[in-house]
Description:
Layout: H1 27-41, H2 50-64, H3 69-79, H4 82-92, H5 105-115, E1 121-124, H6 131-149, E2 153-158, H7 161-169, E3 171-173, H8 174-177, H9 182-188, E4 189-191, E5 199-202, H10 204-207, E6 210-214, E7 228-233, H11 242-252, E8 256-264, E9 277-281, E10 284-287, H12 288-296, H13 298-303
The structure holds S-adenosylmethionine.
S-adenosylmethionine binds next to loops.
Amino acid sequence: MxxxxxxxxxxxxxxxxxxxxxFEFTSADFARIRELIHRRAGISLSDHKxxxxxxxxxxRLRACGIDTFRHYLDRLEASGDSAEWExxxxxxxxxxTAFFRESHHFPILADFAKRRQQPVSVWCSAASTGxxxxxxxxxxxxxxxxxxARQCTVLSTDIDSQVLAKADAGVYxxxxxxxxxxxxxKRFFLKGTGVHEGLVKVRPEVRALVKFExxxxxxxxxxxxxxxxxxxxxxxxxxxxxxxxxxxxxRFEPLMKPGALLFAGHSENFTYVTQAFRLRGQTVYELAxxxxxxxxxxxxxxxxxxxx
Length: 308
Ligand SMILES: C[S@@+](CC[C@H](N)C(=O)[O-])C[C@H]1O[C@@H](n2cnc3c(N)ncnc32)[C@H](O)[C@@H]1O
């Protein structure tokens, strides 16, 4: 691509990266992007995400053949073009994940699933490229056996359509599965050969438990009919401000069966946001109303999987 003359925002000192930029990128552009992504996805972009926003959205400008951020954002807002809005959101999400990330949660889930006297339904609400929901499915198979696990469901949602497509394919590089034990690798993955050398694919029996759908956690209605035994909402609330976190948690509450668990990311603390949840330990939450009932009723404790 030909190098363009770079104009920098005259209201501020040029940043090192400005001199390498193809497109003018002003503070007003960044402020507008922040406002739009917050409105659309609840994501709060901090100042230090400015370069990230530039480089990810510069690709959209190139793809659309537009040469200023202002025109791109004008067109985005005016058009209501849902495909471009989707691309805009996809560009600004952060999708870092891994198999059995925050590994302490999986034995807790295994134990919970064994004690629960019914097939468990799990909602993985920020599933990214699929490593998390597949880890949940593998845990259920290990805990309950293949036959009983087949009755379980792992609904896996994310706002980002691109990561969901990758998750749906269930194909990963050998590097991505390197931390898994040989036993898990053999049991849950097919090894690619020929042109697929260096890749693995999640086995159909794991894949069968997992269903992928696009869902925006900041939507006012999730359209989810049945409540869940466990919700995984890990490492997504960190991108939301406190009022957005409170809204999301208030929508989770009616979607949790009695005794259900909510799994959070390592740096997410929901007790500062709402009194509806109580920390059980290790970033796992339960509904406060269950905790109260649990103190009085053996039935509720059985439902919560606390009494064998
Ligand atoms: C850092 S990843 C975390 C993935 C996984 N939960 C984990 O802990 O490994 C955050 C995910 O949240 C998704 N996300 C961001 N905003 C969202 C929203 N409003 N609704 C649903 N998902 C969202 C992103 O697309 C991204 O895939």
